[in-house]
Design a protein that fits this description.
This protein has 13 helices and four strands. By secondary structure, the chain is mostly helical. This is Phosphoadenosine phosphosulphate reductase domain-containing protein.
Length: 289
């Protein structure tokens, strides 16, 4: 963790700050990630580094309420994020695609392309084993409009070196960036989540459960070290009261379906969004059956 921030800090110190920093927000990062993002936004603003947060914007909702985050997406479709189903399309849809869309309309990029030049992308993969695997995959992708560079790897910086550089700059070490219900989340990360995140995890798994065939839940299948359902882990660790878990599983999916059915009768432009329903759920205002 901290590779991208380390790259930015070091480039700024060398007088080579990028022309633009892009961050894609899927709408469901862990709370500490948003707090760190806000801090780094202020750090960049103080140094005159342009910074933009982009988001994937769905446009076709059929008869569903509109949604604008990966959380609302999985609840709408009664499914799990792709990583829990053995695929890895979450990042492509919610992170890569909105950044590509932004750059297509970015004036400096258009100017460069009109001159036959490429836009240089600086990617924060370091020289550690994990990022080396990511680099091996990413570097094999042909992306003609762009030239991708990996300065941390060029410098031979490992993850430990990146962390040390962040600390030396007087900045806290960034938290691991991921959605709070990502199938790759570790047990210790689940333990650290606030209760409202845990409640939504229970809801996601309960909502998807009737349609699951090959996996048990967000952690896919049970192993010797953890269950396939994060809900079972939350229950075993007593991270939420059992009565609350039972109430969410019993009532919330049905209430959500009723909300969707009612919304389907309203023109798209007038439909309440899934985010509105989620806000009501989080506020604990769902009507008791």
């Amino acid at each position: 963790m901290g590779s991208a921030q380390t790259l930015l800090v070091e480039l700024e110190a060398r007088g080579e700050a990028p022309d633009l920093v892009l961050s894609a927000d899927p709408g469901a990062e862990k709370p500490e990630t948003y707090a760190y993002q806000e801090m780094m936004a202020a750090w960049m603003a103080a140094r005159g580094i342009p910074y933009e947060i982009v988001r994937y914007v769905p446009r076709r909702f059929k008869h569903w309420p509109p949604y604008y985050s990966i959380l609302a997406n999985v609840l709408t479709n009664a499914t799990l994020p792709s990583i829990s189903l053995g695929r890895h399309s979450c990042s492509l849809k919610w992170k890569v695609a909105p950044q590509d869309a932004y750059l297509r309309d970015w004036a400096p990029a258009q100017t460069a392309w009109s001159r036959g030049q490429k836009v240089v992308r600086l990617i924060g993969y370091d020289a550690s084993p994990a990022d080396s695997r990511r680099y091996a995959h990413a570097s094999a992708i042909d992306d003609p409009p762009f030239e991708c560079r990996y300065p941390l790897r060029e410098w031979g910086w490992t993850r430990d070196r990146c962390v040390a550089r962040i600390v030396s700059a007087g900045l806290p070490v960034p938290p691991k960036s991921s959605c709070f219900f990502c199938g790759a989340i570790r047990p210790d990360e689940v333990r650290a989540l606030p209760s409202w995140c845990l409640r939504l995890i229970v809801l996601i798994e309960a909502r998807a459960e009737p349609r699951l065939r090959s996996v048990e839940g967000l952690w896919r299948r049970s192993t010797k070290t953890k269950p396939g359902k994060i809900t079972d882990f939350i229950r075993a660790e007593r991270l939420l009261p059992e009565a609350e878990i039972a109430a969410i599983r019993r009532d919330a999916p049905t209430n959500l379906i009723r909300f969707q059915d009612a919304a389907s009768l309203v023109p798209v432009s007038e439909r309440p969004t899934m985010e509105a329903w989620i806000a009501t759920f989080n506020a604990g205002l769902m009507e008791a059956e």
